[in-house]
Amino acid sequence: MLKNRNIVTVILLSLVTCGIYGLYWIYQTATELEDAGRSGSSMSPTALLIITLFFPYIGYLLFGMAADQNLNNVRMQRGMPTVDNKILYMVLGFIIPIVLVCLVQNEINKLTPEAV
User: Fold this and answer.
1) What is the model's pLDDT at position 105?
2) Model confidence pLDDT, tens digit, residues 68-103
């Protein structure tokens, strides 16, 4: 199930923990997106985490590709129009990863109801 998270909190926790929360966020989000999107073709969250740990920009680039695919699968399951952000996510993942985090979390927040 996709989890609604506050974008500012994600950024601040990533900065305060010197990126450790960012790695946790990538693993959790990749797992949630893979479960919700049900696409067997995306990379395993564990492999993605290991790649991001040693090669951060490549890991974020791969995460952007997988996130776009899984977000579109969730949209199709819900009867919503799909949006092709793959190139945008890949470029941002390689150049400015924190913006990719914000955009992906924003898209997830649009697809999940607010926690009561």
Assistant:
1) 95
2) 999 999 999 989 999 999 999 989 988 999 999 999
Query: Taken in order 55, 44, 85, 17, is the CA torsion positive or negative?
Result: negative
For 22, list phi and psi in degrees, rounded to 5: -60, -40
For residue 39, name the pLDDT band (cuts at 50, 70, 90). Answer: low
Whole-number Å distance between alpha carbons of 111 and 20: 26
Say if CB 38 and CB 69 are below 8 A apart: no
DSSP string, the chain: ------HHHHHHHHHHTTTHHHHHHHHHHHHHHHHHH--TTSPPHHHHHHHHHHSHHHHHHHHHHHHHHHHHHHHHHTTPPP---HHHHHHHHHH-HHHHHHHHHHHHHHHSPPP-
Does position 116 have pLDDT exceeding 60, yes or no?
no
